[in-house]
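Sequence and fold
=================
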Amino acid sequence: MAREETVNQKKPEKEIEYWKEVGDNSFKEGNYLAALEAYETVVRVDPQNAEAWKGMATAFTLLNRPYQALESLDNAVDIDPSDLESVEIKILILSKLLEENQERLNRLKKAQTDVNNHKLI
Protein backbone atom coordinates (compact mmCIF):
# COMPACT_ATOMS: atom_id res chain seq x y z
CA MET A 1 0.00 0.00 0.00
CA ALA A 2 2.81 2.46 0.85
CA ARG A 3 4.44 1.79 -2.55
CA GLU A 4 1.14 2.58 -4.31
CA GLU A 5 0.82 5.88 -2.44
CA THR A 6 4.39 6.84 -3.39
CA VAL A 7 3.70 6.06 -7.07
CA ASN A 8 0.48 8.13 -6.96
CA GLN A 9 2.30 11.04 -5.31
CA LYS A 10 5.05 11.04 -7.96
CA LYS A 11 2.63 10.96 -10.88
CA PRO A 12 1.13 14.42 -10.21
CA GLU A 13 4.63 15.86 -9.73
CA LYS A 14 5.68 14.50 -13.14
CA GLU A 15 2.48 15.77 -14.70
CA ILE A 16 2.98 19.22 -13.16
CA GLU A 17 6.59 19.30 -14.32
CA TYR A 18 5.59 18.23 -17.84
CA TRP A 19 2.81 20.80 -18.27
CA LYS A 20 4.91 23.58 -16.72
CA GLU A 21 7.61 22.82 -19.31
CA VAL A 22 5.00 22.79 -22.11
CA GLY A 23 3.75 26.17 -20.89
CA ASP A 24 7.23 27.65 -20.66
CA ASN A 25 8.20 26.40 -24.12
CA SER A 26 4.94 27.56 -25.69
CA PHE A 27 5.44 30.95 -24.10
CA LYS A 28 8.99 31.21 -25.50
CA GLU A 29 7.63 30.32 -28.95
CA GLY A 30 5.05 33.10 -28.69
CA ASN A 31 2.13 30.68 -28.53
CA TYR A 32 0.43 32.32 -25.55
CA LEU A 33 -2.82 30.41 -25.88
CA ALA A 34 -1.02 27.05 -25.70
CA ALA A 35 1.01 28.36 -22.75
CA LEU A 36 -2.18 29.42 -21.01
CA GLU A 37 -3.76 26.01 -21.53
CA ALA A 38 -0.65 24.27 -20.16
CA TYR A 39 -0.53 26.48 -17.06
CA GLU A 40 -4.27 25.91 -16.54
CA THR A 41 -3.57 22.18 -16.53
CA VAL A 42 -0.90 22.71 -13.86
CA VAL A 43 -3.29 24.61 -11.57
CA ARG A 44 -5.99 21.96 -12.03
CA VAL A 45 -3.52 19.36 -10.72
CA ASP A 46 -1.90 21.72 -8.18
CA PRO A 47 -4.06 24.74 -7.33
CA GLN A 48 -1.34 26.00 -4.96
CA ASN A 49 1.25 26.39 -7.75
CA ALA A 50 1.95 30.13 -7.64
CA GLU A 51 4.36 29.97 -10.59
CA ALA A 52 1.65 28.50 -12.84
CA TRP A 53 -0.79 31.23 -11.74
CA LYS A 54 1.87 33.83 -12.64
CA GLY A 55 2.40 32.12 -15.99
CA MET A 56 -1.34 32.30 -16.62
CA ALA A 57 -1.34 35.98 -15.69
CA THR A 58 1.46 36.69 -18.15
CA ALA A 59 -0.31 34.77 -20.92
CA PHE A 60 -3.62 36.51 -20.18
CA THR A 61 -1.84 39.88 -20.32
CA LEU A 62 -0.26 39.11 -23.68
CA LEU A 63 -3.64 37.88 -24.96
CA ASN A 64 -5.09 41.26 -23.94
CA ARG A 65 -7.24 39.77 -21.18
CA PRO A 66 -6.18 41.98 -18.26
CA TYR A 67 -9.05 41.17 -15.90
CA GLN A 68 -8.28 37.45 -16.06
CA ALA A 69 -4.60 38.29 -15.56
CA LEU A 70 -5.54 40.16 -12.39
CA GLU A 71 -7.54 37.20 -11.10
CA SER A 72 -4.58 34.90 -11.73
CA LEU A 73 -2.26 37.29 -9.92
CA ASP A 74 -4.70 37.43 -7.01
CA ASN A 75 -4.38 33.65 -6.73
CA ALA A 76 -0.58 33.81 -6.92
CA VAL A 77 -0.44 36.48 -4.20
CA ASP A 78 -2.89 34.54 -2.01
CA ILE A 79 -0.56 31.54 -2.24
CA ASP A 80 2.64 33.55 -1.70
CA PRO A 81 1.99 37.02 -0.22
CA SER A 82 5.74 37.69 -0.10
CA ASP A 83 6.02 37.48 -3.91
CA LEU A 84 6.66 41.13 -4.74
CA GLU A 85 6.93 40.42 -8.47
CA SER A 86 3.27 39.38 -8.63
CA VAL A 87 2.25 42.50 -6.72
CA GLU A 88 4.34 44.72 -9.03
CA ILE A 89 2.84 43.12 -12.15
CA LYS A 90 -0.63 43.60 -10.70
CA ILE A 91 0.12 47.30 -10.10
CA LEU A 92 1.30 47.68 -13.72
CA ILE A 93 -1.86 46.08 -15.09
CA LEU A 94 -4.10 48.18 -12.86
CA SER A 95 -2.22 51.35 -13.85
CA LYS A 96 -2.65 50.53 -17.53
CA LEU A 97 -6.36 49.86 -17.07
CA LEU A 98 -6.76 53.11 -15.15
CA GLU A 99 -5.00 55.01 -17.92
CA GLU A 100 -7.13 53.40 -20.64
CA ASN A 101 -10.34 54.07 -18.74
CA GLN A 102 -9.30 57.67 -18.11
CA GLU A 103 -8.76 58.12 -21.87
CA ARG A 104 -12.24 56.68 -22.53
CA LEU A 105 -13.74 58.99 -19.94
CA ASN A 106 -12.01 62.00 -21.51
CA ARG A 107 -13.35 61.05 -24.95
CA LEU A 108 -16.87 60.71 -23.56
CA LYS A 109 -16.63 64.09 -21.84
CA LYS A 110 -15.41 65.68 -25.08
CA ALA A 111 -18.24 64.06 -27.04
CA GLN A 112 -20.75 65.32 -24.48
CA THR A 113 -19.28 68.83 -24.71
CA ASP A 114 -19.45 68.67 -28.51
CA VAL A 115 -23.10 67.59 -28.34
CA ASN A 116 -23.92 70.39 -25.90
CA ASN A 117 -22.11 72.96 -28.06
CA HIS A 118 -23.93 71.72 -31.16
CA LYS A 119 -27.30 72.22 -29.40
CA LEU A 120 -26.39 75.88 -28.82
CA ILE A 121 -25.96 76.48 -32.53
Q: What stands out?
A: The radius of gyration is 21 Å. Residues 84-120 form the longest helix (37 residues).
